What we know:
By secondary structure, the protein is of the alpha/beta class. It has 18 helices and 16 strands. About 6% of the residues have low confidence.
Amino acid sequence: MNKDEKQFSTDRRNFMKTFAMGSAAGFLGLAGNKVNATPYEPAAYAKAMAPVKIKSVKAIATRPGGSNLIVVKVETTEPGLYGLGCATYTQRAFAVVTAIEKYMNEFCVGRDVDNIEDMWQAFYVSSYWRNGPVLNNALSGLDEALWDIKGKRAGMPVYQLLGGKCRFAVPLYAHASGRSIDDVVANVKRYQDQGFKFIRIQLGGYGGVGTVPKTPDFKAAGFGGETDNFMDEYAYLTGVPKMFEAVRKACGEEIELLHDIHERNQPMDVINMCKKLEQYRPFFIEDPLSPENTHWWKQLRESTTVPFAMGELFNNINEFVEPMVNHYFDFIRIHISQIGGITPAMKVARLGEWFNVRTAWHGPGDVSPVGHAANLHIDLAVWNFGVQEGAYHFGEKEQAVFPGCPTFKDGYAYVNEVPGLGVDINEKEAAKYPINNQAPGWTVRKYDGTIIRP
Ligand code: MG
């Protein structure tokens, strides 16, 4: 052992001796640094982040406004601290409740509320088979509830945790429908008077359902169910350009017009119709292709210059990558609970910024006020926001069940400016409106009775 090695050996022995004595001051002295040995006292803001565990996860199912709504409530070991997240899958609500109560609760109890990404990834793969709407919606309930809790712990609205506001409020688009073109025009004017700058126009139901008075052959033949809808493809394809022309003429150039094809037509018919719509400058045309026809994107995109919005039926964020990098569409139509919550939606939103694709989150009536709030918090925080769907006229019953619903004024939506997502739940009120199996029907048929995909 040379001189240096001996010195090292002695130092090491002294270090181990001191360490064994448990003397922090001795350790600091050996290290030779002038460090204040006073025990670390976290600042007040840091104390707020002391570990908190999940105590229970449950589903609250309610139907105050006529749609089945599912909300996840995550209760914690911190008295009074809980979070809420939207897990609404109206059409299969009972299946989501089962997923939450039979699998998610047991999975979550005892875990740290802070590690949202880790919780998301762990639950996502915990069933091995994944990407279905039932488990994705359950996962969204958990994810949004954890963001709600994080906001409450930080003392900030969730949009602050996502980067803060990019805009003072969120521009909305309203739905103006009508059985005739005159009715559509009247409804557009009504929404213009309310301050809306973006209005979606539809003649009848999706695909023009309900606007053709004649009885289809399949009904006359007694084929299909009594409540099955009939879509006249020709009437739809020729009616939409006429509707755009009339609305532009009557309501002016300033209003932004949107339309939802709802994936119901043949790709070549869509291309032909969209070419006719170019002259009316639509803000976007939504869902031109069904998920089964995505291989038509390139041809569609190269055939017309109308902007497209797409993605509410996508199950997995990876489905957005190829259309984005190829510039196939212009707006992201994620249904945030369907994709698994705020965490995955933020990833797609951020990816969109790289490709000049803007957000237009799905915001129909069968999203809970908690889910609408989640939409809005992201809308406020991402730079590449496009527009938000929804008119946000929450009824008295919904407001009693969900205190703190987002509010609406002059075409803009506002979140409740409190820590978290800003929407609470009154469980007693929620229990007054049990869910049922009367979800909206999606059975639409051609003349001969062939099913049309929605
Ligand atoms: Mg749609």
